[in-house]
Amino acid sequence: GPQASLITIDGTIDSVSAGYLSRGVDAANDNESQFIVVVLDTPGGLFSSTRDMVLDILASDIPVIVYVSPPGARAASAGTFITAAAHVAAMAPSTNIGAASPVGAGGRDLPETLKSKATQDAAAFMRGIAEERGRNADALEQAVLDEASYSASEALQQNIVDLIANDMEDLLAKLDGRVVRIKDREVVLETEGVAVREIKRNPVERFLGIVADPNIAFLLLTIGGIGLVVEVLSPGLLGPGIIGVIALSLALVALGNLPVNWVGVGLIALAMVLFFL
Dihedral (C-alpha) 172, 32, 61, 25: value to the nearest 10 degrees? Predict the structure, then answer.
């Protein structure tokens, strides 16, 4: 029977979240889902990962519905871009969206020149998304330039989102018969009797989701650096060097500076060297 795919993103937006969404969109296309529902609850995250996620949504061949849920959830900062990029943007009651101004690592303020450049770049990106989806570009731009935030009812009134739904059942009922534009064609959503199939994170994504926590990532970076320094100062111990390489590799993956595949290649090469020794 007809089916839809469900993707849940609850937490910081990072390279792991971006990879999960990308895989989910591909899987939904492969299993011939009619549409994708992304349940979103995020305080924000990396702008580079946000841009990747927005591009995946804009390029999707099937409708993507972003639903800020459950009640009390938020689509703050990076979540504002992701929600605005959806073919249909929905929010649960008592949720909020906005406050999308760029900040540095750990929420610190950026230097004045860098902040101005980053803010203007983010504002232009937001305007482009709003124009593509027919949303209120001025209100969304204020979320970037002036850190404006909106409740669910305010966002609906300001044409930032398309509807408010109490739960998934209410969302599907309100989506039925809605016409959305996919690239150069129009698609009518038919949600009656549709089976919602969740695409869960795989074990690698769950593990990387844990180490992607900034505190853990920088701890791994510190352990990796110490391990390599000890190995250099006392050659032949092997233990500190091996632990250091693995910790450093995981830290670079968590920080989004190294793809998982190359980490795998590097660790296999290290294993071969150790077997030979």
Answer: 80
**Beta-strand pair 185-188/179-182:** antiparallel
Six-digit token string for 52: 């990747």
The residue annotated as part of the active site, out of 48, 117, 153, 234, is: 117
Q: What is the DSSP letter of 276?
A: H
What are the structure tokens assigned to 191, written together?
A: 């949600």
Q: Which residue has the higher pLDDT, 204 or 107?
A: 204
pTM of the model: 0.82
Instruction: Check whether 151 has a pLDDT greater than 80.
Output: yes
Tell me if residue 77 is catalytic.
Answer: yes
CA distance 217 to 257: 12
Helix 203-211 with 15-30: angle, nearest 10 deg = 160
Task: Give the pLDDT score at 110.
Answer: 67
The answer, yes or no, to whether residue 80 has pLDDT greater than 90, is yes
Which residue has tokens 């300001």? Answer: 158
How many whole angstroms from its chain centre is CA 99?
Answer: 16
Q: Which of 5, 77, 101, 149 is catalytic?
A: 77
pLDDT in tens, 250-270: 887 776 655 666 677 777 888
Q: Cα dist. 267→15, 201, 210, 246 in Å?
A: 20, 23, 20, 8
Give catalytic status of residue 117 as yes or no: yes
Dihedral of CA atoms 83, 143, 257, 11 in degrees, nearest 10, equals -50
